[in-house]
Amino acid sequence: MHQEQHRWHSPALGREMDVLVFGHGGAKLLVFPTTLGSYREWHDRHMHRVLGDHLENGWVQMYCVDHAHGDSWYNKTIHPGTRAWRHLQYDRYLRDEVVPFMNARNPTPFTIAAGASFGAYHAVCFAFRNPTLVNRVIGMSGLYDITQMTGGYSDGNVYACNPSAFMTNEHDPARIAAFQRQDIIFTIGRGDPSYRNNEELSATLWQKGIGNALRVTEGHAHDWPYWEKTIRRYIGGHD
Question: How many angstroms separate the CA atoms of 159 and 207, rounded?
């Protein structure tokens, strides 16, 4: 299986960032790690093997990015608004650096953003902030109300990073049309603490005419064996 690692100094973040690439062509799959993971997490969890046939056959090319959690949401020593500002810099890194990097290497005009747990937040937040850049988003066991990470605090920066809030107030016709062209998939266990948040966000989108799939599994379903089955199902139609 073709594999590459790339690193560059990010102007948006002011630090070195890594990207791990699997596969040689097909739809571009941008994947985000969980809270404790890194850009190597999907490799270490053997997700490149889970999607091995898709990668080997050139159906999907997987780009594994790192996060900036230590500088943002998980740095409790700084103000929540500052954490959100750092996340907006991360969004700019993805938009202005990672996406052009992907497009330069792979001209296929279809991009999927995916992640599990806090990686699902990243995938959905990026896809909803930049709907013309992402064709499908797969959020597995995610939480999309970031004020649960800020103790309820919100300001302009936090709001801009909070899909549950900014999608509620989204009324721009061009953006609504862009969301309607996306494939939006939320998967969650009924016993997951974030189940209600997923249900509410799905309903918010439907109220705006934005179709989406909310797929609910019984139990907690917040672990890698569940995510392995889920990613195969919604990447390539396998159960």
Answer: 20
